[in-house]
Amino acid sequence: MWFKFPAGCDRISIERQEFAVEVKDEDGEGYFRAPDHFSARILELKGFSVATTLPEGSPADLPKPDPLRDNAITALTNTVEALKLEAQNLRTDLSVSMAKVRTLENEKAMLEVALKEVTNKLAELQEDDEEETLPALKAIPGGKGK
């Protein structure tokens, strides 16, 4: 919505939003655009009025609010933010899982080494047992040690 500044004024601030002269007419009076929802606050100020006519070549008025579009944008923005958060959580979970996998792979490698050592030790013990058993079997008549 277009508004007209009072004489001697070329800038205002409404709810922390700054508005300044955007166009001037041939008499030097300034005009500015502001969203419709600020109109009540602006018109309460002394000397401010709604612009009924604008100087030639003035830009178009600000677009009117579209609640359906605005609500859809808000909903989609919320969805995107939720999806970003979910993706970040999934990345974190994946990192934790990958760390667990690496730990389990290290444990597996250590267990394989230990298993190999135990298997070798068992084979050695079996060989030692056979070496000790063979002389005893040779002494027995009909023993397999012949």
SSE diagram, text form:
Blueprint: E1 2-4, E2 11-14, E3 17-20, E4 23-24, E5 30-33, H1 39-44, E6 49-50, H2 67-139
Antiparallel strand pairs: 1-5, 1-6, 2-3, 4-5
- Unreliable runs: none
The number of domains: 2
Terminal residue distance? 116 Å
Shape: rod-shaped
Helical residues, percent: 40-55%
Q: Strands of the largest sheet, in order across it?
A: 4-5-1-6
Order of helices and strands: EEEEEHEH
Mean pLDDT: 88
Find the count of extended strands (DSSP E, 2+ residues).
6
The share of residues in extended strands comes to: 5-15%
Largest sheet: number of strands, sense, barrel closure: 4 strands, antiparallel
Please report the number of helical segments.
2
Radius of gyration: 44 Å
- Overall SS class: alpha+beta
Describe the protein's architecture and organization.
The chain has 146 residues and is of the alpha+beta class. It has helices at 39-44, 67-139, and strands at 2-4, 11-14, 17-20, 23-24, 30-33, 49-50. A hairpin with a 5-residue loop joins β4 (23-24) and β5. The radius of gyration is 44 Å and the shape is rod-shaped. The termini are far apart.
